[in-house]
Specification:
The complex is a heterodimer of chains A (94) and B (247). Helix content of chain A is 17%, strand content 23%. With 94 residues, chain A is of the alpha+beta class. Chain A has a 3-stranded antiparallel beta sheet, covered by helices on one side. In chain A, a hairpin with a 7-residue loop joins strand 1 and strand 2. The longest helix of chain A has 12 residues. Chain B is mostly helical and 247 residues long. Chain B has a single domain, classed as Ferritin, core subunit, four-helix bundle (Ferritin, Up-down Bundle), CATH 1.20.1260. Chain B is 67% helix and 0% strand. The chains are: A alpha+beta (94), B mainly alpha (247).
Chain lengths: 94, 247
């Protein structure tokens, strides 16, 4: 790949109303090419109803050394999980 | 009889261009583009299959496979532009753009055909061709409006293949008969729309509409350039060498 192409991350929404899910990435030189490449590489078998592409360099990621301060403090706070509540019989899809 | 011929012309064009494009498989300039071109090739094979199945049904004695693999080049009616060589990536994109822009207009009209099968096949093809056009058009603009070298390469590609675009708009006896029966399309009438569509894209791409009008013709009567022979030789090799081979 030449220096004029970038890596773009591809997110696909499988059905209206659902969240876009990360599926992989493509190389492309511009927005339109990224969208078309994503369509050709990731939606050949009717996987989606909407595609997002975003340049990989525009994604801000936490670092692995952030893990301790970001995620470990929640380990001992079981009350944050909704497992202590009784679900009413009528409630579905929760 | 005329409907068979008319259907074969459409099916053959899809088949031969599909076969040409399939040559890009593993040869694309990038992985993504390799997949894009072979996707288009597969769409065209799907379209060819639909039209050849219909021609076979009308014929009554031959299968779609017989039609694809057991006819000689002078019995093929694909447009000459479809059998031209892939050349470099820009050549292929130009050929695809010119083909898709015409067939988008053609299938949009054919979808109104009184023949229910042709109309349904055309309606399905419109959706696919729209994407083929979008893909080739955006590449044409990218290359035409790119560097001095890429601009020159696609302008040369346009000039080289231009003589084969006259065939799109020809009307022979069969075309006129199909048009009169409400089955076929008035190709000549599409010229104005096609010029407009092509002109707009060429302008965006900083490319010139060629002046040469020495149009080549022949496919409607089975007269082809030598390239068709090369395509068929490879495409038909296996079914001809091993007639009983199963998929």
């Amino acid at each position: 790949m030449s220096e004029t192409t970038n890596v773009w991350e591809v997110f696909i929404q499988s059905k209206n109303g659902l969240a876009h899910k990360h599926v992989g990435n493509v190389h492309a030189a511009d927005k339109e090419m990224a969208l078309q490449n994503a369509r050709d590489v990731y939606t050949r078998r009717n996987e989606g109803s909407c595609i997002w592409v975003v340049k990989t360099i525009n994604i801000v990621s936490s670092e692995s050394e952030d893990g301790e301060s970001f995620f470990n403090p929640s380990n001992d706070k079981m009350y944050r999980h909704p497992t202590f509540y009784n679900m009413p019989d009528g409630a579905k899809n929760i | 009889m005329s409907v068979i011929n008319y259907t074969l012309r459409i099916g053959d064009s899809s088949l031969i261009l599909g076969q040409r494009l399939s040559d890009w498989c593993t040869n694309g300039p990038t992985l993504e583009e390799d997949i894009a071109l072979t996707n288009i090739s597969l769409d065209l094979f799907g379209q060819a299959n639909g039209f050849l199945e219909y021609a076979a049904k009308l014929n009554g004695t031959k299968s779609a496979d017989d039609l694809a693999f057991k006819r000689d080049s002078n019995q093929f009616f694909n447009l000459l532009i479809t059998e031209q060589e892939n050349g470099h990536f820009g050549d292929t994109i130009v050929r695809q753009f010119l083909y898709s822009s015409f067939f988008l207009l053609f299938y949009t009209e054919l979808a109104k055909s009184k023949d229910a099968t042709l109309s349904a096949l055309a309606a399905k093809s419109v959706k696919e061709i729209k994407y083929h056009l979008r893909h080739s058009e955006s590449w044409l603009i990218r290359l035409g409006d790119g560097t001095v070298e890429s601009n020159k390469k696609v302008q040369d590609a346009i000039n080289n293949i231009w003589d084969f675009t006259g065939e799109f708009f020809e009307m022979d006896e069969i075309d006129n008969q199909m048009l009169n029966e409400g089955i076929g399309v008035n190709n000549a009438k599409l010229k104005f729309l096609w010029d407009d569509l092509v002109n707009k894209t060429l302008e965006k791409a900083n490319l010139n509409y060629p002046n040469n009008t020495n149009m080549k013709t022949g496919s409607k009567t089975g007269v082809h350039t030598n390239y068709l022979y090369t395509v068929l030789k490879e495409m038909q090799y296996l079914p001809r060498k091993y007639p009983d081979a199963k998929w």
